[in-house]
Amino acid sequence: MVICFAPLSEPWNGGSALTKLAPLEAILFDIDGTLCDSDPIHFCAFRELLQQIGFNDGVPITEEFYSANISGGHNDDLARSLFPDMDHEKAMQFMDDKEAFFRKLAPGQLKAVDGLHDLCRWIEGHNLKRAAVTNAPRANAQLMLSLLGLTDFFPVLVIGSECDRAKPFPDPYLKALELIEASPDHTFIFEDSASGIRAGVVAGVPVVGLTTRNPEKALNDAGASLLIKDFQDPKLLSVLEEIKPATGNGQG
């Protein structure tokens, strides 16, 4: 598989933390908002169910509220922050209902971020190690990977709630590195949320932030080494060309 590396339209000096990774050994992927633009589906599910229970006096939440207070969060943390006065078990039932609603909506709406499948073929062609690392419930993660046709692409799937601590703590990314036996010195992460970027940075792994939905400033402030629009972004393709391995790394 050959990815065409388009010339940059203007000089670019970013990604220095990434160029130090050569030769590249592994790439770790968040799922929601990174592999697929799923945030609009989550936003619709939250907006409808929160309105049903009278959250914010029945006024529908905005995309800005969703981005600032919900996107990338772990359900246990979201239950506490959204419903500080509600019994936690009841709050978690709301989160479970919301995830079920998401799974009902996703099959008709979920789409891959542009360039994803070309990138996956490039990764396979260079025999890079990889893992999917997410705060999503396992049922959601498995559904999204299936809908994207990537179930077999990822030999490892790490779920935040199955670790000691979910993102924004580094535990899920540290677990992924351990499971695929990869060095943080030759690995980078794709993320779309500030909390996920912070998790990667604390794990000692450079992070490429996707500006799928969240504000660029928030991603930069969280510590992203590089921001890209999608997987066809010339800045990303230029870095991959610099750090690609000369030979395979032993993972099919």
TrEMBL record:
Keyword set includes Hydrolase: yes
Cofactor section: Mg(2+)
Organism phylogeny: Eukaryota, Viridiplantae, Streptophyta, Embryophyta, Tracheophyta
Molecular functions (GO terms): hydrolase activity; metal ion binding
InterPro entries: Beta-PGM-like, HAD-like_sf, HAD-SF_hydro_IA, HAD_2, HAD_sf, PGP-like_dom2
Protein name in UniProt: Haloacid dehalogenase-like hydrolase domain-containing protein Sgpp
Source organism superkingdom: Eukaryota
SUPFAM superfamilies, per the entry: HAD-like
Entry keyword set: Carbohydrate metabolism, Hydrolase, Magnesium, Metal-binding
KW Transmembrane helix (keyword) present: no
